[in-house]
Amino acid sequence: MTILPGGVLLGHSLPLQQPEFAVNTKLVRLGKMDENAENNPEQANNKAEDAEEAEGELSVDDLRAELEKIDVQVPEVEISEVHLQQEDMYSEFPVSYKENTNKEKLILAYAENFRRQYVHLYRDRKLLFLNPVNECGMEKFVSTTIRPTLLPFQELYSYENCAEFVADYLEFQALDPPVDLPNQLVSPTTALKRQKGNSFDFATLLCSMLLGAGYDAYCVSGYATREICLMDQTRDVCPLMKKKGELKSEEKKKEVRKYQVKPPKDLRSKFDLKMQARREAEEEAKAAERRREEEARISELEKPKPDALHGLRIHCWVLVLSGKREVPDSFFIEPLTGNTYPTEDDKFLGIESVWNHQNYWVNMQDCSNGCKDLSFDLGDSAKWEYLLHSSEKPSLEIPDVEAELYEGLDDDEEEQEDEKHLEMPPSWVHPILVTPKEYETRCPLGKKTILYKKARLEKFARYLLKDGMITKLSAYDDYELKNLVSAKEWFVNRQDKLELRVHNHRTGLITEYMLQGRLDCMKEHTYKSGSPGPETDRTMVFYDKARVDGLVKREETPTEMTEHFKDRDDFLYYRHVLFSKRMKKFGASTDANHRPILKITERFHRNREKPASEDVSECVFHIAEDRIQLTFHCEDNRVTASTREFIKPPNANDKSQVITMTPDMTSTFQVDTTKKSPKNLYIYNMLVSLVEAEDQSVQAIRASEEEIKECLLERIREETVSELSISVYDTERNEKAKQHRKELERQQLEEKLRRQEQELDYLAPFLAQMGDPDKIARQQAFKLKEDCLADLKQRLIDKANLIQSRFEKETQELQKRQQWYQQNQVSMTKEDEEEYLAYCSEAMFRIHILELRLNRHKEMAPHKYMALEQKIRTDGRLSDYF
Amino acid sequence: MSRLYDTVEPAVIDEEMLQKAVEEQGPKDEAGRIAKQEGIDFADVLSLRLDFKNILKIDNLWRFTSLTKLQMDNNIIEKIEGMDALVNLVWLDLSFNNIEVIEGLDKLTKIRDLTLYNNKISSIENMDALVDLHVLSVGNNELDQLENLIYLRRFKQLKTLNLSGNPFCDDPNFKHYVIAYLPTLQFLDYRLIDENTRAAANEQYTYPIQQLEHNEEQARKRIEDQEAKEAEFSLHKGAYVENLNGSALFDSMFADDTEGPKLALLPGVDELLTAYKEKYTAICQQIFEYGLKEHQRRGDEVSGFQTAVDEAKEDNRNMGMRKINDFNDYRRKLFTELAQSSDQAHIDTSLEQHNKEIDKLWDSLMALEMQLVDQLEDTIKEFERNMADMVSTFVENVQALISQCRDLENTHNEKLLEVAIVTLEKMVKNELDDELPDDVRMLFVDKDTITNAVGASHDLHLLKIDNKEDDIITRANNWLAALMERVHNEEEVKRNRHRVSEINNFIDHLREEVETFEIQAA
């Protein structure tokens, strides 16, 4: 195979062939030398040992003592142990990790050539990261260390989750020194196993996963700021705290209709307005100025200290190019944190080279202005110098239609051309494996803490903590993280459906957010951390669709309770209750000591089926004053609403008495003067129904109070138990299912054993005859033996008799038929004769078989008898006596 | 006839009986006392029971307009009558009477439950108005025609039917027949119809029912088509261009024309007429399309105006309500405060303040109303101007088109006259080849006669055209006048008076309240 050297593109003036071959030969030699070097120490050791043995043979005892004194073997042993350990360590790696194939050697040589030319041409540029050693000490080309793998987790199909997984899974180790390229690059599999690595390990693993998921991803070796290189996020705002971009409320532009009425005339002084506007503008400007100053001060405060190594710190990250997987714009992924940045971000200061699993490109563009002006068209050889002349350029060119047309014609030519290119050998790394358990545990030991600006983020694996917490975000007031402002805790798999708890330490308010599916349909619950009991300040929000009473929200203060409803059949949407202080009861305290109700206000939506003047809009029960105030709905074209007021008759609450009404008990205001005032009967009925409604409202309020109490008790119980729900599909954790399975297995085993035992125990019937004695006496043993043998004997004889009787029966039958045949021989048809002959041969066959069986039985019976006797003798239960 | 009541004197529904029944069946206890005190209005009674009263004739029920339930079972009523006022009736029981014919139910459209058990009815009929019928009981009657039951198919809500004790119940097919022909039925003779029976019944009558359904479907379609056509026609009529999308106007010109058909027989006139008709119809079509378009435009304009006005009113109303609510809050606070205060001076100043607030409220409410009036006035003016323009443009354009028709008619007339003269000349010279009927020949006695005939025909045609034009223009103008009248009346005058009286009423009420409070305080 001839190689088209990269040098063609690199240096036109260089002699092409010579260095190439020189490198090749040199490398081959080097490889041999390596082998020698590896073997050498062993040989040396052997020699030393041989020598010692020889010495030991020569001298006798005194020398032995002396030798023991010298004790040279200790360091040797140590060395050999270390060596062995290393051997062990390597031995667990597959062969491909420890050796280089010819193709790999070739690519290494090729890379070496590339490096030489590069160094020759660009003396002032830094070294390239081309062929670091792997975990087994083998030189490997960086591209072959990338192993595109798609992991079998649905979430890992998107780059965000891949990046987050890598950032979580591996523990970061900074480069040391931070300005030099690492000399070792471990395979992604090893990085996963060790769960730690530097930025190059991070990037290689992430790149492998992204390529596997179909992204056009590249590892980037370059320079970044100190914060990026050291994974220092203490100057970044926690992504969970960032306010989501305020939804652009599309202001509905009011349509200007043809007949839109003109707005009323503005009679204010224009001068005054102008002056006011000016004043406001000035104040606005001042406020803006103040804000700016404040911002400047804060940014000054937060500015990182100057970095002596700025621009020299080596970093490795991932570049995702647009095009594949519907990625609209190219972007960077910082593998240490999993964050994405636009390619123009000023945190990335420069790029030396990029590579994926197929090729390696060196940046030929000026990076003095960071990565802002870089073009990522890798097909442009003026900007990106490639290592391998690949047939499929990752350029953005659109394939030429004509070229495609002719493609068929010069296939052969192309094939020949293709052969000239050196291809990147397949990856030496084994496929990346992540077990579901590892995936779930994620961070080393399942825990991870990230420090952000004024915030601390803690992550936990699922089921790691007993209360199901997976994320905890603590926000602080200061940069030293001392003054706690608020804490947010996220939960999963909670039996009580708790999803998020926000504890505001400033106001002392705790808000809990629940998922759908609770019995009490609670959605949010806000309360004071200091007073969690009933009849205190709290707000509960419910999933109103799931509730029968359509309750949306219930707010409570020590003396008030407000309930909001939605979509109720009785059009009620608001109920407000005012309580007074609980009166102290003396003597026998009844069990339900409720707060006395002062006032109930209920509001209703408009019921279109009723006329507005009969449809109550607001109903106020002044319970303390025995008054009921009604406000009706406003008619569509009116501005005033009718009202009616009742004074409750004194005996209204006594069920046994009939409510009486006098006309002075009610007063009214009617909007429509033309309408006849309603009849007394109608008003009386209204009063009766109102008294009833009041009663029902009071009951509803008491029920609400009860419900709150129950809710709180339930919450306390849930909090103390804090059970986690486990999916029925989770075979690992679902204890019940596991137990059930084990139980089934156990039962099966028992059944099997039982059956075996049953089959085995030939003595059981005889033991049963004796009444299953625990211990068998000598007498009994003999009897047992006798019985058992007698029984077998009987059975053998019976069997013989049975065979004999059958034999005789057959014979008799045959004889009968023979006689019959002889008698009727003359008058027989041919068919009959044939039938007879067939029968004869059949019968003879059967008789013969029976005879054989009998003989065999006779022969076998004594053996069987003796076998049983032997068995009884050796039987564990009877062996004492024989 | 072994009825217990036959021996008793037949009774008449009179005031006394009704009063008694109402009082007996009305509210009890305290409510009853109150009701008695102020008297029960028959119009308020919802349910009435007049059973076992030996009533012969239904009468005097016209005052029970809200009645929903009426029981008149076990009487000796012979005729259903006098119930046209009971339009709200839902439940009617006329069982155990002597009714022979179902009738007099045409106004009772809300009836859901009708009981005619144990009467002498021999045919189910005259119930077309009972569209919401759910339960029907006609057991123990004299029904003997199974086919009569098909009549019940029109009641789509009929769920329960009682037919037991009729002569046709002896028919072995009775049950299956009923079930098959009345698919909405769930209970027959108070028994649930089980699925097996229903399936069997359907199988038995598959073919006749299919045919029946087919016929019904066709009838329904015919009615629908008819309705669609009527709707379209009324649309055209609304656009004042009905019958213009064809040759109707042209045909009508010749319909009353006695001379026209005769003249058409002249040689060459046939072609003339065909060409004329074609052109004429095309112009008519043009008028028709233009008319529809204009109608649509007018409709859009009116609805645009209406929404704008409604919006303005709604805004204004909301502002007013906000003001009133604010005031109510203030008032409530004030009164609670005053109720607890005992300082007379303080109460006086507060009430003084309150009265001022009431005045202020009145001012602001009236200002709002005046503002709305001004706004609406402007808008209505603009609308009126636009509508007038629109209608006059429409009229002008229609006139222009119709004058085209007139021109066509004139041209046609000239040509016709020419042909007539030529024919006359030919006839005079006896060169005419064709045989003409005698009455046509009669026209060609001399030149005057034929000219007169042609002229008469022409005049008639022009008259028709003029009539059509007048019709369209008058109707359009009338519509505009009516619309503007309504707008002015409703949007401006009526609404304004309504609102002003409402505000004044409210303010009066507030002042009254203060006075009562003062009296109480004093």
TrEMBL record, chain A:
Annotated InterPro entries: CEPT76/DRC7_peptidase-like_dom (IPR056290), DRC7/lobo (IPR033551), DRC7_C (IPR056292), MORN_DRC7 (IPR056291), Papain-like_cys_pep_sf (IPR038765)
Key words, A-Z: Cell projection, Cilium, Coiled coil, Cytoplasm, Cytoskeleton, Differentiation, Flagellum, Spermatogenesis
Boundaries of every Dynein regulatory complex subunit 7 MORN domain copy: 444-727
A single GO BP: flagellated sperm motility
GO CC, alphabetical: motile cilium
Segments forming a coiled coil: 732-761
The organism's place on the tree of life at top rank: Eukaryota
Chief location category: cytoplasm
All residue ranges annotated as the CEP76/DRC7 peptidase-like domain in the record: 315-386
Ranges annotated as spanning the membrane: none
Pfam families: CEPT76_peptidase (PF24656), DRC7_C (PF24671), MORN_DRC7 (PF24667)
Subcellular location: Cytoplasm, Cytoskeleton, Flagellum axoneme
Region (Disordered): 34-56, 278-299
Domain (Dynein regulatory complex subunit 7 C-terminal): residue spans on this chain: 775-880
Name of this chain's protein: Dynein regulatory complex subunit 7
Classification lineage: Eukaryota, Metazoa, Chordata, Cephalochordata, Leptocardii
Gene this chain is encoded by: LOC109487978
From TrEMBL, chain B:
Main location: cytoplasm
Gene3D superfamilies: Ribonuclease Inhibitor (3.80.10.10)
Origin organism lineage: Eukaryota, Metazoa, Chordata, Cephalochordata, Leptocardii
Keyword set, alphabetical order: Cell projection, Cilium, Coiled coil, Cytoplasm, Cytoskeleton, Flagellum, Leucine-rich repeat, Repeat
Species annotation: Branchiostoma belcheri (Amphioxus)
Gene Ontology CC terms: cilium
SMART domains registered for this protein in UniProt: LRR_SD22 (SM00365)
Name of the protein this chain belongs to: Dynein regulatory complex subunit 3
Coiled coil (residue ranges): 366-393
